[in-house]
Specification:
Blueprint lengths: L1 H35 L6 H7 L1 H15 L6 H33 L11 H28 L1
Helix pairs in contact: 1-3, 1-4, 4-5
Length: about 140
């Protein structure tokens, strides 16, 4: 019984580690792609959201606590951070795809690019990421 709990805890931790690593890497690359795209008009907003730095911090916090036994609430925080990073990653992919599609349209300079809704979603998800990251930091500080 105890062995099962330990094994499931380790496997769960490994799964979260893998998915956080993949999600952060993908989001990081997607943001870089957006910032380097000369046709992306919302670079200032994206820079202000500072998602790249937040993702680096989350990755670092997870790596530092990967081997340490943490509470269920800390694991829950990491899991929820992972889910919001995945949502951010999806929004970034959708924005990149929308820009690609817009660039293929005739009279693209006279058309409105439809990324504004996706940018608003990204802002909302970034705010959720901030709240979850703050909660994680508070939980980790309580442990110290």
């Amino acid at each position: 019984m105890l062995e099962t709990l330990v094994i499931s805890s380790i496997l769960g931790r490994e799964f979260i580690s893998h998915t956080i690593g993949e999600a952060t890497k993908s989001a990081y690359l997607g943001i870089g792609e957006l910032l380097s795209n000369e046709n992306f008009q919302f670079k200032e907003i994206l820079e202000r959201l500072d998602i790249k730095l937040k993702i680096e911090i989350i990755n670092d916090l997870f790596e530092k606590n990967k081997e340490v036994k943490v509470s269920k609430s800390v694991n829950t925080c990491f899991d929820n951070l992972n889910s919001i990073i995945k949502k951010i990653n999806e929004e970034i992919k959708n924005i990149n795809k929308e820009i690609e599609i817009h660039e293929t349209k005739w009279f693209k300079n006279f058309r409105i690019n439809n990324v504004l809704i996706k940018i608003e979603n990204l802002k909302r998800h970034s705010s959720i990421l901030d709240n979850r990251l703050n909660m994680l930091i508070k939980l980790l500080n309580m442990r110290s």
